[in-house]
């Protein structure tokens, strides 16, 4: 049986401690390994931002892959990085890897997927700045005082999270989930992480996301 090393990544320490997102990644990798005839001989879990390329657990996983002559298996390509140069360097390390969401992608396709992901990250940043600018023009004060006043950092983080979720929301709406309640139920069914990473969606936070995306 072929050997596989599983690599999981979550973006925050809170997600790492709660296991949020890890269970879904582990299930995806486990199903892929069983279907494709891999034996998962080791797992590595990273708590790190996708923007950073210095990841000790990933480096350890790659070293283990070379030692075991194993394939690195991840749930999604964006679990590695949204940076084209990082993906390129990984491919040049001569460690074979599979992304469960696109297991038959060749090297050219992997580069394209990484490029699209990097482009989306750049667009999120642009949309976040535009949204904050629009909020200022509407008279929203971005400071740290008062019940109705958000700090610029928190406002930016909330808007950025909404923009990251935009493709998911638009996909749900296109699939027929039109109401706030229906979107909430489907997000919970898919175990989509919330802004506060508590794992549960409610009508108020779904409504807030939709409002930020208008």
In one word, what is the shape? globular
* Broad structural category: alpha/beta
Strand segment count: 4
Strand-residue fraction?
A: 5-15%
* Unreliable spans: 13-20, 144-150
Q: Counting H and I runs of at least 4 residues, what is the number of helices?
A: 8
In percent, how helical is the residue content? 55-70%
Task: Report how far apart the termini are.
Answer: 51 Å
Rg, nearest Å: 19 Å
Widest sheet, order of strands: 2-1-3-4
Order of helices and strands: EHHEHEHEHHHH
- What is the averaged pLDDT score? 77
Largest sheet: 4 strands, parallel
Brief write-up:
The chain contains eight helices and four strands, in the order E-H-H-E-H-E-H-E-H-H-H-H. By secondary structure, the chain is an alpha/beta fold. Helix 4 runs antiparallel to helix 5, helix 6 packs across helix 8 and helix 7 packs across helix 8.
């Amino acid at each position: 049986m072929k050997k596989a090393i599983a690599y999981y990544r979550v973006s925050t320490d809170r997600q790492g401690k709660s296991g949020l997102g890890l269970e879904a990644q582990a299930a995806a990798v486990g199903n892929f390994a069983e279907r494709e005839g891999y034996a998962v001989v080791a797992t590595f879990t990273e708590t790190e931002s996708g923007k950073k390329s210095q990841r000790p657990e990933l480096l350890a996983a790659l070293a283990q892959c070379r030692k075991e002559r194993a394939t690195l298996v991840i749930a999604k390509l964006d679990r590695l990085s949204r940076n084209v140069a990082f993906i390129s360097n990984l491919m040049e390390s001569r460690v074979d890897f599979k992304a469960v969401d696109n297991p038959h992608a060749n090297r050219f396709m992997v580069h394209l997927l990484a490029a699209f992901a990097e482009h989306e990250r750049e667009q999120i940043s642009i949309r976040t700045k535009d949204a904050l600018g629009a909020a200022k023009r509407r008279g929203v004060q971005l400071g740290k005082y008062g019940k109705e006043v958000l700090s610029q950092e928190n406002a930016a983080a909330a808007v950025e999270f909404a923009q990251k979720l935009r493709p998911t929301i638009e996909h749900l709406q296109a699939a027929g989930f039109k109401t706030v309640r229906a979107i909430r139920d489907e997000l919970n069914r898919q175990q989509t992480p919330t802004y506060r990473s508590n794992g549960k969606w409610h009508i108020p936070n779904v409504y807030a996301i939709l409002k930020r995306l208008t």
